[in-house]
Amino acid sequence: MLSVDTIRKDRSVASEPDAGPSMSWTQRLSAYAAMVVFGVPSVLIALMGGEVWPFLDYRMYAEAKFTPEVDWLELVGRTDNGGSLPLDDEAYLVPFARSELLQALYTLDLFGETDAAPARRALQGLLASYDRNRLAGEHHGPRLVSLEVYRVRWHTRPGTSPSTSPSTSYDVDAVPDSQEFLQAVHLPQATP
Amino acid sequence: MNALATRWNRFWFAPVPAWPLGLCRAWFFASFYALYLYRWDQRVYAFFPEGFFQPRSFFAWLSLTPVSEAAFAGLVTGFEYAVVLSALGLFTRLATAASFVLGLYVIGYQFNYGYLHWAHAVVPITMGILALAPSGDALSIDAWRRRAKPVRPTGGQYGWPMQLVRLIFVSIFLAAGLSKLRAAGLAWVTSDTLRYYILENQYIFQEAAAASWGRPVAAWLVNSPTLCRRLAGLSLALELSAPAALFSHRARRLLIPALFVFQVGNALLLYQDFFFAYLGLYAFWVPWQQVHQCLSRRRLP
Asked: Are A49 and A73 part of one and the same domain?
């Protein structure tokens, strides 16, 4: 148990200006190794920017945002009979959270500016994963034969417009102001 | 030159007792386990759909490919055990080293799938620092087991790990502040950027927004562009001035609680909850010796 005397002793020792020599050679080596391996890259990346996991420049929300427009994505599944299922339930998307999945799609050149193939492969993987999890009883969604991606936009209106969607209770508009079809993928055996 | 060396040694190697480092080790690992590993089973990350894998950092350099579900589950189990043993201080050196290596892989693995949780990165870094430090010399089962031959209770070897974690902590906020200046300049403060981000996140994170206690505040705040700009200016100033907490006790008393409130604000207004990683780090800023002294004085008649 720590006593007041111990603490007083601790404080008196802590006030000594230079205690470096009291450390052994290996202890000092460990300290400098930690500074070089962890301290230097953290500070350098903080000052210069960049990313080498786990050293990051923490640039989330760093860009200036000059318009209240929200530009986002929506995934919609299609059933055999043409019915639609918005894939917003995270049980369908495990292990992604919905926002993570959509961010991941953004990084795969979903708009096809250079090569749309990786995004297409990822969407096919997502549809196959949905079907595999459904057959394994991991969720109770309907069988989907295709998956469609839309670009959705809202012009946000702070403090106005209660939801126009009966299925939600948010006071942001659940229904976007515009919706643009980007691409669709099909289950191999269900290709039209 | 001599004065510089003295200041260097005083900053990094001033002799301090072993127990605050032991306490911080236990608190860091226990809070990370309770707030993160216990709540979210990491094994699900073996089930990412095909086609999303985009290796980053050492995964790319070493050409590491996705592992099997069984192998990943084994690594996660090893990581969980290592974190618990590190918190308890049993086989501390081995457990903290294993936590670092496995954490680097297990936590880093999900970043190969196209998105980045910024808060996670500091976790393996802190684990690595604690693995290189004698963090099991006090308040650990290891220390209790070898009580017959006590280790040196005070020394510079217990001070540098605390200082290094503090340096990492402030560099995160500095990095965030400098990133804003690089990407947006002062427009980050003078425009409606923060206001629009608060608004945007109400759409992007609709479920989190609906469940958040901060949502009414966010809804009120976005109606006041001036207040949002002031808040943006305050946030940026706070991030950029965080390193002062390393060198000035007076600044530390102001900045560290302010950064805590800032992170609470992020959780409530932007729905970005970083506390599973950062709650453990705040322990490294607590002046534990003074706290103990105050508590001991109160107990005295």
From this structure: no
The reported pTM is 0.88
pLDDT in tens, chain B (301 residues): 788 999 999 999 999 999 999 999 999 999 999 999 998 888 988 888 888 898 988 999 999 988 899 999 999 999 999 999 999 999 999 999 999 999 999 999 988 888 777 888 999 999 999 999 999 999 999 999 887 555 567 888 999 999 999 999 999 999 999 999 999 999 999 999 999 999 888 888 877 777 788 888 888 888 899 999 999 999 999 999 999 999 999 999 999 999 999 999 988 888 887 888 889 999 999 999 889 888 888 776 6
Give the residue from A1, A4, A9, A10 with the most B CB atoms within 10 Å of its CB, the best one to mutate. A10
Q: Do A108 and B54 touch (CB under 8 A)?
A: yes
Q: Last residue of a domain, which of A36, A63, A90?
A: A63
Of B52, B118, B167, the CB nearest to A56: B118
DSSP B232: H
Distances (CA, A) of B252 to A17, B244, B280: 20, 7, 17
Number of folded domains that form chain A: 2
Phi, psi dihedrals of residue A153, rounded to the nearest 5°? -135, 140
| Residue B73 near chain A (CB below 8 Å) | no
Is A15 a domain residue? no
